[in-house]
Amino acid sequence: MFKGNLFILTVLVGLSSWFNSPTVLAAEFNSPKLNDLLHGGLQSKGPVNFTKFFDQDSTQKFCSELKPVVSSDEAKRLMSENLKGIKFLEDGAYIGDWARGELIAQSGKGLRFNDSENTKNGGNCYACHQIQKEELAHGTLGPSLYRYGEIRGYSDEVIRYTWTKIFNPQALLICSNMPRYGHNKILSISEMRDVMALLLDPESPVNQ
Ligand code: HEC
After folding, report:
1. For all residues of the chain together, what is the average pLDDT?
2. Does the C-beta of 162 come closer than 6 Å to ligand 1?
3. Is domain 98-207 given the CATH code 2.40.30.10 in the classification?
């Protein structure tokens, strides 16, 4: 009895690892049948646009490979391409209003099926980051940003780095999981300034 169960278990484990093997997954992703199913099943609605999902840019294509080599020359080329698209501010006024920045960081609105085209996008930063310590409902996919300026300082380099990160994280880490707020126009320049203030204004509660 025991031996029989063990045999079935071995066969099941073997089968499941075969189904999950990169060759099988690659074959499935390239299959026209799967493509038809995805195209038929995923319907664009409101601000959710699946054309973009299927029509990936070069960075997305690279990061959708089964094993993207993030140290490759192609990765470096794509990062510098992303870097070129970053809009740095001529007036150097990167620090807006931290209180407005907190509202943006808290808001997960926008770009969802039930939003309209006019819904104001939030940054949803708390979904992935700790920021103010009073907010306990935060995700942990990204590093904690609590005491961000206090720890890293307020130098021009830190400001430029943080702006780059918020504008287009893939310019510094090719397959970063963080959204490209400036690149994809999720937030406006002035909203990104406010989020910058939340992290980098010495008066912001984040740095107290
Ligand atoms: C979907 C998850 C996700 C969301 C939403 C997100 N981030 Fe991130 N963030 C990450 C991850 C993952 C990293 C670490 C990898 C990297 O550096 O790209 C990161 C890194 C960062 C860094 C660099 C931290 C360091 O110590 O160098 C900053 C700054 C940052 N995020 C700010 C923000 C802000 C501001 C928002 C909202 C406007 C935001 N993030 C929204 C996932 C996210």
Report:
1. 88
2. yes
3. no
